[in-house]
Amino acid sequence: MLCYFIYPYIYYFMERDQKKIIYILVCVYVLMLFMILILYPKFYYRVEILFSRIPIFIIGCLIGEKVYNSEEINTYFLLFMLLLLMTKGPVYYALNHWGYYGHIASLVGRLFRGALGVGTIFFIIIMLPYFENTFINKFLCYVGSFTLEMYVVHIIIRDALIVGVHLELTSQSQVLLYTIIYLLASIICSNILNQILNPKRKIQ
């Protein structure tokens, strides 16, 4: 939730077309994360889940603005996203065989997974026009009306299933069952929360 508190400041720079400042701050922030990881590893691993997600969130905000404003995506950007998807295997292999530098693999891996997620989403967006007026498009529009609520609720449901129910995931059938329950429960509960918080808003 920390990311949503800093979003107004991100929006401030985006509105004034000062995105270069945001990119510079992201690079400085990532360098600081590496310094903390190398100099104070015990402290870093206590805050890793929180602070390593912030640069990914900020980049997502910048790209989300392009989508919202229907800005044209240049070829170089698409090629870069394609390169990210193509390098998934080699990068994960390198992270698992890093040797001496293995202690920084966790941060590199999290940043790469974030970038990989952005690349995947962009190619999904490109494919969406081919599914116009289909069930897939209508379902995504429906779920998209309460994604913020889903972001909050899915963590609670995950902890409830794994920690509260002590659900064990030792086989493919258990993983499949968990995934189905997890997705359905997240969609249902987040929709209910959306209706409570926004009783007058209708889903298109």
Set down the secondary structure blueprint.
Blueprint: H1 2-15, H2 19-39, H3 41-51, H4 54-68, H5 75-86, H6 88-96, H7 105-127, H8 135-144, H9 147-164, H10 172-197
Structure described in brief:
This protein is an all-alpha fold.
How would you describe what is shown here?
This protein has 204 residues and is an all-alpha fold. The chain is built from ten helices and no strands. Helix 2 runs antiparallel to helix 3, helix 2 packs antiparallel against helix 4 (54-68) and helix 6 packs antiparallel against helix 7. The model has no long low-confidence stretch (mean pLDDT 76).
CA gyration radius, whole angstroms: 19 Å
Strand fraction equals under 5%
Which shape, going by the Cα principal axes?
globular
Strands, count: 0
Question: Percentage of helical residues?
Answer: over 70%
Quickly count the helices: 10
Largest sheet: none
Poorly predicted tracts of residues: none
What integer is the average pLDDT? 76
- Ends apart, CA distance between termini: 27 Å
Helices and strands: which structural class?
A: mainly alpha
Element-by-element helix/strand order: HHHHHHHHHH
List keywords for this structure.
204 residues, globular
